[in-house]
Amino acid sequence: MALCPKELLLRIYRFILSAATALLAILALSSEAASSRYLKGVTYFGAASPVTFWNSDLSRVAADFKEIRADGFNTVILVVPWGEFQPGLQPGRINADAFARLARVCRAASAEQLQVQMRLSYLHDHYPGEDLAGDKRAVMLLSNDRLMPDWLSYLQRIQTATRGCASGSFLSWEDFWIVFKHLDDAEAGHLPGKIAKDYGYDAWINRHANQAYRGRYAAIRKQLGYYPFPKRRSPDFAWVFRWFDDQLSNRLMSRASQVLRPLSLEPRVDDDPIFDGERRIDWFSHKASYQVRSSPYVMSYWAPAMGAQNHGELEEADKVLERFAYMQKKMATDTSNRIFLEQFLFKDNSLLATQNARIKPEQLSDFLQRAALPLLSLSSGYALWGARDYDASMLFNGFFSLGKKGWQFKGGATLAQKGPASAMLPQGASITQNVREALTLRAMTKLATLRMRLTGPGTIKARYADQERSAEIGAGESWVKLSFPVANVDTDLVISSSAGDLRLAEVHLYDFTQIGDVRGTLGQPGLHLADIQELNRKLDTGGGIPSRIAAGEGDSLRLVAGVHGVERDGQSSFAWVGPRLRAMVLAKGKTIVVSGHIKPEMFKTKRGCQIRAALDGRLASVQEYRISGPVLLNVPVPEKTQGLPVELTLDSNCSLNPKQAGKGNDDRNLSFILNEINALP
Questions:
Q1: β-strands 338-344, 381-384: how paired?
Q2: Closest by alpha carbon to 162, among 220, 113, 218, 99?
Q3: What is the pLDDT of residue 190?
Q4: Are 233 and 281 in contact (CB under 8 A)?
Q5: Cα–Cα dist 193/227, whole Å
Q6: Looking at the predicted structure, is the pLDDT value of residue 379 above 90?
Q7: Are 298 and 335 in contact (CB under 8 A)?
Q8: At 11, is the pLDDT very low, low, confident or very high (cuts 50, 70, 90)?
Q9: How far apart are CA 331 and CA 622, in angstroms?
């Protein structure tokens, strides 16, 4: 039915109003973020782990958050699994208790004036009774729209549960990278080759690949009926990376951001090797996914291994700090978002990282004391992976916070009627849980540890992996540890009392302990707690941010993002700037002066070149240049920020890559020449 002109105009007006409202919301969000403090955070798992937190004891959450504040942090990150919060699919079935717990924890953080960021769609949990395991959910979500309505419903409920207390959320590439394991299996013959069609790769290639790629595979597509995934060591595998980045940063992010804002993304920061058979010929950068439109932040991660040889080397703090600065500048070049290092892994004992480069243990304190300056200069926040060390337990509801869920109670075993949640084990009683083999690290470890908090006296007995162990329990509360071989199949864990009436308050079964040495598994101060507390104080006070940055003075440009290396022209030093410069400076006066040189004619533009200067995300000065000559920008500093570190950004609308333009081998993006940034009175 045709609309009358009046109705049509009304709809157009409503559409424009809606779009304007959305734009203003984003701008307000960006402005708010720009004026916020540097984010100093921890990913919070309580006394549990990423996999078991939401079914653990939450009675100490408020006390933990007070402690986190006292350690100098202002942000907590909550990992929110998909399977545990929405175990049922098609149609979606939610876990109402999990959402209630999320709201409770979020409000507790807000009460302590802690910002809350949430990592959503975590896919490594093991909620009993979930309709589809996390790896299969990841593949289906990347491949087609069958799970999309359920997923969006899960995200919408999170938005509702955390409204008023959460500051933002993000998706992580790590939760979806399992697709590449499936591709490796397929190449080895473990899965049918048609997964390219099942995963939507064939349809994507039809829309996005160039003619040369389609031509190379035209014959095999005619034979199979679909474009196959190229071999992992083929140069064409770069198209698989492009497909993954596009699915994650465009398809999933665009849909999710319609129901949840602000929503950020942790893209893959590591470059991936591209091979020509067995020989590495190039590196693939995932920089196309570094721009995030639905949040002021792009999430990132860092460990000393990034950019290193990774032959098990122990490195000096100086060398690692230099590489840290390089990696952050590299990312900053390809994003206009603020960078939040939500995993700052200065120490990583993960079993997959045994050959990774590490900071010399005796220099870790020195590294942390000196990390404030590059962190402030090249990022807008950092967070530790874990507020404390944790045992990577394989058990669900190991604190009995959810009653008997996940356990079989036999022989008179009951839940405690008084006091903290516990299992009561009179003599001869037992509790049993089936432990999935998929949750173990048996390929890397051979030993599992059962750690229990018990009140006796009596004798505790445990059976796991066809082995039986026992221990005598004295009167009062105590911790007991028993060792077992790691099971190679799904195995029942049976815990029973062979003598006495025992109270079991907490049980962990694990084959790995994540150690960061900030706080121990019981919350006790770790080796580097004082270093982290001092780092947080330095981040609050400016951390040695300079007031003057000059191309001719040492390495003062080292911590400025978007600036190329220092060059000399006779007695004068300078550095080329890319399309965007970002620098942290201590604004000691009313004005920041930027000096340099620009050559508008090299860009062949009739409009000339424009440089826009902003302080803490707010436009402060605009200067136009139509002929070659000096750059002299006077950027006014608001009175309230005088004497404080400020973020200076310079954006140029003129940029040229000489190599791409056929004017030599210089592969840098060039905008103008910088001599000095001076924020002195």
A1: parallel
A2: 99
A3: 58
A4: no
A5: 10
A6: yes
A7: yes
A8: very low
A9: 26
pTM, to two decimals:
0.90
Contact by Cβ (8 Å): 547, 585: yes
> Nearest CA to 117 among 389, 386, 383, 516?
383
**Residue 56 corresponds to which amino acid?**
S
Helix (H, G, I), strand (E, B) or coil at 361: helix
pLDDT value at position 34?
33
Report yes or no: 126 and 51 within 8 Å, Cβ to Cβ.
yes
What the block records as the tokens of 350 is 């993960």
In the chain, domain spans? 1-35, 403-512, 548-678
Q: In angstroms, rounded to a whole number, what is the distance separating the alpha carbons of residues 507 and 414?
A: 16
Per residue in 342-365, pLDDT (tens digit) is 999 999 888 888 899 999 999 999
Using alpha carbons, list the distances in angstroms from residue 63 to 42, 58, 69. Answer: 15, 10, 10
CATH 2.60.120.260 fits 403-512, yes or no: yes
Model confidence at 12: pLDDT above 60: no
The letter for the amino acid at 337 is N
Beta bridge partners, 453, equal 479, 506
Secondary structure (3-state) at 112:
coil
Lowest mean pLDDT among 88-97, 442-451, 513-522, 572-581: 442-451
Residue type, 678: N
Judge whether 484 and 430 are in contact, CB under 8 Å: no
Question: Could you report the per-residue pLDDT of 535-588, keeping only the tens digit for each?
Answer: 999 999 888 899 999 998 767 788 999 999 899 888 888 999 999 999 999 999
* Strand-pair category, 672-678 with 548-550: antiparallel
User: How far apart (Å, rounded) are the C-alpha atoms in residues 313 and 356?
Assistant: 7
| Rounded Cα–Cα distance for residues 408 and 438 (Å) | 21
Q: How many helices (H) and strands (E) does the chain have?
A: 17, 30
Architecture of domain 548-678: Sandwich (2.60)
Half-sphere exposure of 636 (CA within 13 A, CB side): 8
Picking from 507, 503, 487, the residue whose alpha carbon sits closest to that of residue 391 is 507
Residue 257 identity (one-letter amino acid): S
Spatial separation of the C-alpha atoms in residues 162 and 166, rounded to whole Å: 5
Residues 398 and 467: their CA atoms lie apart, in Å, by 20
Q: Are 404 and 412 in contact (CB under 8 A)?
A: no
* Mean pLDDT along residues 297-314: 95
Instruction: Please state, as a whole number, how many other Cβ atoms lie within 10 Å of the Cβ of residue 160.
Output: 12
Range 124-141 average pLDDT: 89
403-512 and 548-678 share one CATH topology? Answer: yes
**Of the candidates 452, 434, 349, 443, the residue with the CA atom closest to the CA atom of residue 394:** 434
| Cβ–Cβ < 8 Å for 260, 165 | no
Encoded amino acid at 315, one letter: E
